[in-house]
Specification:
Length: 99
């Protein structure tokens, strides 16, 4: 089981998660990040860092975002690795709890 990035990341892409990941499991798409489930060690570091609560353990992904489990698995094999902070995208109202 791995952690999963979900819909709230889209258009926000704050990248705190990627900088916190100790095993370089994050991959960068244009509007959001995903996690490679073959690399994730379920350490919880990314989940704590995301200010929009976009990351869930696979078995706790809300029903409306379940398709993100497969999306993370597939797209993580195509996207480039990201392991550091980038300027947040923030091209929508991200309802950030802290930044
Ligand atoms: Fe997205 Fe949250 Fe990471 S918005 S890029 S999952 S810190």
């Amino acid at each position: 089981m791995a952690y999963v990035v979900t819909e709230p990341c889209v258009g926000c892409k704050i990248t705190y998660c990627a900088a916190a990941c100790p095993v370089e499991a994050f991959r960068e798409g244009k509007d959001y990040l995903v996690i490679d489930p073959d690399i994730c060690i379920n350490c919880n570091d990314c989940l704590r860092e995301c200010p929009v609560n976009a990351i869930f353990p696979e078995d706790e992904v809300p029903v409306m975002w379940k398709d993100w489990i497969v999306l993370n698995a597939k797209e993580s094999k195509k996207f480039p690795m990201i392991n550091d902070l980038k300027k947040p995208l923030l091209d929508k109202d991200c309802n950030i709890k802290e930044l």
